[in-house]
Amino acid sequence: MASTSELEPKADRKIASPSGTRYEIICADSHVTTPPDFWGDYLPERFRDIAPKIEEGDDMDYVVFQGQKKPLNLLASQAGREGKNFKIQGKVADIGRGGWEPATRLDEMNLDSIDAAVLFGGGPLGTDNTDFYIESFRAYNRWLSDFCSHDRSRLVGVGYIPLRDVDESIAFMKECKELGFNTVNIPAFPMNKENPAATGPKTALGAQALALTGNPNGERQYDQPEFDPFWAAAVDMDMTITIHLGARIARFGNKDYFLSDLVNSKMAMAEPISIMIFGGVYDRHPKLRFVSVESGTSWFAFAATYMDRTWEKQRYWTNCTIKETPSFYWDQNIYGTFIHDRPGILMRDLPGAGNIMWSSDYPHSETTFPHSLECIARDFEGVPEDARREILCERAKRVFKVGQ
Predict the structure, then answer these.
(1) Which of 65, 191, 299, 307 is deepest in the core (most CB within 10 A)?
(2) pLDDT higher than 70, residue 224
(3) With 0-12 CB in 10 A as exposed, 13-18 as middle and 19+ as buried, what is 85?
(4) Cα–Cα distance for residue pair 121/140, rounded to 1 Å
(5) What residue spans define the domains of the chain?
(6) SS3 category, 215
C-alpha cells in the first residue's frame, strides 16, 4: 500500500457530492482491479474448479492457472505511490482495495474530488478454451455490475464484450444494457472468428490485452458490411462504444521498451479510427458515439487535418466515397480521453480536437490520484470556465450517460 504521506493532498480541496446529484468533475477513464479470487464466485459452475487461484508466498503471491504459476503483477495498482516507489510484483495486500471495494473507492474519490468515475477494467482470462474465454467476459461484467450497484450515480461501469461474431456481440451488448451499463468496450480490431484467444499469450494480462486489441493483422475490419448490424444495434440501444489503447499494447514489465510502448500506444489509435471514417461507418451510422480512451488528444488535430488533406488528394483513385471531410466525422462521432495533455486542451477549437474529456486513470501508474485538482489547475490554466466545465464534466456526463 502507498504510505500515508504519499496519499496526503497537497492543496485545499472540495469534497465531491456524495449523492452524485451535482457533478463538477467526472473522471472519464478510471479502472477497477478485480479481487484475485472473484472468478470462483462469478464463473459458471462448470469452470470454477479450473479458475485462477492465488498461492501465497513469503515475499510474493502467485496466480496459479492452467499449469502456470506467475508472480502477482501490481503495475495496474500504483495509486498514491510516487514513481520511485512503484512496486511491480508483490502480495495481494499490496493492491489498493479501492480497486475492488466500492465503499473504499468512493472514499478515495472523495479524497480526490471526483464526483463520478467511468470504470474500465480487467476483462477475460487467458485460455485456449473458447467457451471458458467467452464466459469470462460475462463473469467480469456481472462482477462489475455488482460493484457499481453500491452507487450507480457515481460508479459508472463499462461492459467488456468480444467481437468475433456480430450476433454474439449484439447479444453481449444487450446483456450489458440489462446489467445497467450504457457503454461497452470492444477490441480495437475484430477478433478471430475461431478460437479468439489463440493469437495472444496465455496469461491473465495477455488475455486482457487481447480483449483490447483483437487481431490487427486479420482480414476483417470494422468498416466492412459484416459489422453494420453491430453499429446499428449500438445506436438503437443508445450505447457508447469505446476502444481502450487497443491498437498497440505496452509490453508490461519490459523495462527496455515499456516507455516507448506507452507513447506508441496513444497515437496507434488513429488506425482503427481512420479505418472507420474512410470506410464510411459514420455515414451509415451518424449517431454512433465512439470514444478513444486513454489515448491523449493533442494528436487528434493533426490526425483530422492530415486525413482531410490526404482524402482531398487520394479519394478518387481509392474510390473513397464518404460524404464529408474526415474532420467532420471526428467532430460528429469521435471522442477522446486524456490524463495529462495541456496541448490537447489548448487545441480544443481545431477541427477534430473538440470532443475531449479529462480522466485520472486511477489506480494505474499514470494516475493523477490523489492530486487531481493540482493537475487540473496546472493543465487548465487560462481556460475559460465554460470550456473547463465541458471537458471536466458535461461532455462525459452526456457521452457516458452519467446519472441515468
Answers:
(1) 191
(2) yes
(3) exposed
(4) 9
(5) 4-39+95-399
(6) coil
Residue for grid cell 467480469:
140
Give tens-digit pLDDT for 147-195: 999 999 999 999 999 999 999 999 999 999 999 999 999 999 999 887 6
At 349-377, the pLDDT tens digits run: 999 999 999 999 998 777 899 999 999 99
| 313's grid cell | 488528394
Q: Are 187 and 207 in contact (CB under 8 A)?
A: no
What pLDDT, on the 0 to 100 scale, is given for residue 129? 85
One-letter amino acid at 337 equals T
Q: What per-residue confidence (pLDDT) applies to 214?
A: 86
- 3-state SS assignment for residue 335: strand
Asked if residue 34 lies in contact with residue 143, where contact means CB atoms within 8 angstroms, the answer is: yes
Task: Give the full edge-to-edge strand order of the sheet including 356-358.
Answer: 159-160, 183-185, 240-244, 290-293, 334-338, 356-358
The phi, psi pair for 167, rounded to 5°, reads -60, -40
pLDDT tens digits, 44-88 = 999 988 888 888 888 888 888 888 888 777 666 655 556 555 566
Closest CA to 327 of 309, 344, 346, 348: 309
pTM for the model stands at 0.90
Amino acid at 315: R
Domain 4-39+95-399 falls under CATH 3.40.50.720: no
The Cα 54–Cα 65 span in angstroms is 9
Q: Tell me the helix, strand and coil percentages in the chain, rounded to 5.
A: 40, 10, 50
Cα–Cα distances in angstroms (integers) from residue 386 to residues 114, 375, 389, in the given order: 18, 18, 5
